[in-house]
Design goal:
Elements: H1 11-36, H2 42-54, H3 59-75, H4 80-100, H5 105-115, H6 122-135, H7 140-153, H8 157-170, H9 175-181
């Protein structure tokens, strides 16, 4: 972190880091080929999921997934089960990316976009938020997303006020919880 000198990498760590970088470059190259050629086959979409699991900050990959999802949803509008399975799969990809970096702007925005498609289990979203807020109760991305989910659910202001009260009682200096009260 800040103010701490870096220690030189051991040769085996340096080799592992170089191998990981090479793998990431190859993955990005294949991904960009798919994106530029509008390839939305399952294998191509799965490749973007692998990339996002490694690097959740790849905005190009999130945008590609939106384009791919829109394309795939337009292919079969009549099958509600297929529609639901595509959106469920997308939510899983976002959740995996958030497990890698739960402060990823792109992942949170993409999750909002998926939910705006009309498919969501608000209770599941609140449980997921509880997990992320237990890991970092001051994560403003999670608080912002919580407001979004609460609005989708038409959750009462009293319920949200109670939730923020509980979070503040758990940690009085949780400024994100204090800030959230402003919106309730």
């Amino acid at each position: 972190m800040h103010g701490r000198p870096r220690k030189p990498l051991k040769p085996e760590d340096e080799a592992a880091s170089a191998a990981k970088a090479q793998k990431l470059r190859a993955l990005q190259s294949q991904f960009l080929h798919n994106h530029h050629n509008n390839i939305y086959a399952k294998e191509a979409v799965d490749l973007s999921a692998k990339l996002l699991e490694i690097n959740p900050e790849s905005y190009t990959a999130w945008n590609y997934r939106k384009l791919a999802l829109e394309h795939n949803l337009s292919q079969s509008e009549s099958d509600p089960d297929w529609f639901k399975s595509l959106l469920d799969e997308e939510l899983i990809v976002v959740e995996n990316a958030l497990r890698q970096n739960f402060k990823s702007y792109g992942a949170w925005h993409h999750r909002k976009w998926v939910l705006s498609k009309g498919h969501s289990s608000a209770d599941h979203e609140l449980r997921l938020l509880d997990k992320f807020q237990k890991a970092d109760s001051r994560n403003f991305h999670a608080w912002n997303y919580r407001r979004f989910v609460a609005a989708l659910m038409n959750r009462s202001e009293e319920d949200e006020l109670k939730y923020t009260e509980d979070m503040i009682n758990n940690n009085f200096s949780n400024y994100s919880a204090w800030h959230n009260r402003r919106y309730d």
